[in-house]
Amino acid sequence: MAICRLRASLSLLKTKSPFFHYVPLHGFSSSQLSSQFESVGFIGLGNMGSRMANNLIKNGYKVAVHDINCNVMKMFSDMGVPTKETPFEVAEASDVVITMLPSSSHVLDVYTGPNGLLRCANLMRPQLLIDSSTIDPQTSRKVSVAVSNCILKEKKDHWEKPVMLDAPVSGGVLAAEAGTLTFMVGGSEDAYLAAKPLFLSMGKNAIYCGGAGTGSAAKICNNLALAVSMLGVSEAFVLGQSLGISAGTLTKVLNTSSARCWSSDSYNPVPGVMEGVPASRNYAGGFASKLMAKDLNLAATSAKEVGLQCPLTYQAQEIYTELCKDGHESKDFSCAFRHYYSGQDEL
Length: 347
Fold this sequence. Notes:
Layout: H1 30-35, E1 39-43, H2 49-58, E2 62-66, H3 70-78, H4 87-92, E3 96-99, H5 104-112, E4 128-131, H6 137-148, E5 163-166, E6 169-170, H7 172-178, E7 181-186, H8 189-202, E8 203-210, H9 214-242, H10 247-255, H11 262-265, H12 289-305, H13 311-328, H14 336-339
Parallel strand pairs: 1-2, 1-3, 3-4, 4-5, 7-8
Antiparallel strand pairs: 6-7
Helix pairs in contact: 2-7, 5-6, 9-12, 12-13
Family: Belongs to the HIBADH-related family. 3-hydroxyisobutyrate dehydrogenase subfamily.
Catalytic activity: 3-hydroxy-2-methylpropanoate + NAD(+) = 2-methyl-3-oxopropanoate + NADH + H(+)
Active site: 219
């Protein structure tokens, strides 16, 4: 199957304003809200996206998909899911399109490239475009402006123009599989309310964060805090081991004390302490260190742009960059316990 790789660039523009006339949603049932988005396009079928798309299918949406990976496309095709060769073809078949992509450059490619979602800006079918990628807020705002300048092929209900939401997620692969993700959503609040049934088909929480780019900003801040907490927990476990306290015992202390956090009670980094987490399988799967390094780069860049001193951001950025250079880029980010701090497994 011929899969096009797209290229594009887009100048920075400022965005704000509602893009459709809002009809109050309290008069609509969940099924009525869902029905306006019966046909859903999904682009980006990696570890997260493939599971999110599966949950949409399970919840009764008509889904069409696209990815540059021919193997994953075949997997969906074998399931009876329509596959499209370009993002533009996905747009032509969908009322709403969701993208889940690795980086800002991929998002620009898929939206504004020669065969991208916005190829026929004067006559777009989708009313709503949702980007769940973890990217910088500036790119989210650029693409939102580009979408707002497009025209709908057919005006439906109260939608006057296409709308974009930036809606990155938290929870990782396990939550994507279970449909328990948290969505952080930026853009028009009315569009967020209309899209909420979609979010709750893939997750358990959807939080409105503000205007365009604020969903992306929330995700960067969340992952910054996650990276720092994982490093802090790992450092504490290694110090505990050095002082004669087993990681299992210290875990009990942390999880019933003031230091309790997700990195200690749900995603413990010490092999042998907790089942079902990446540490229990040689740090395979989960959230790759290279992705954490990418997100910390986004956080560091954003901090510099607003003139904010963030020493923990820069320290965490250095540690995860070093882990990647040492060959651990594909291992889960909790591998810092073993590969940066030289922590020991629990016997």
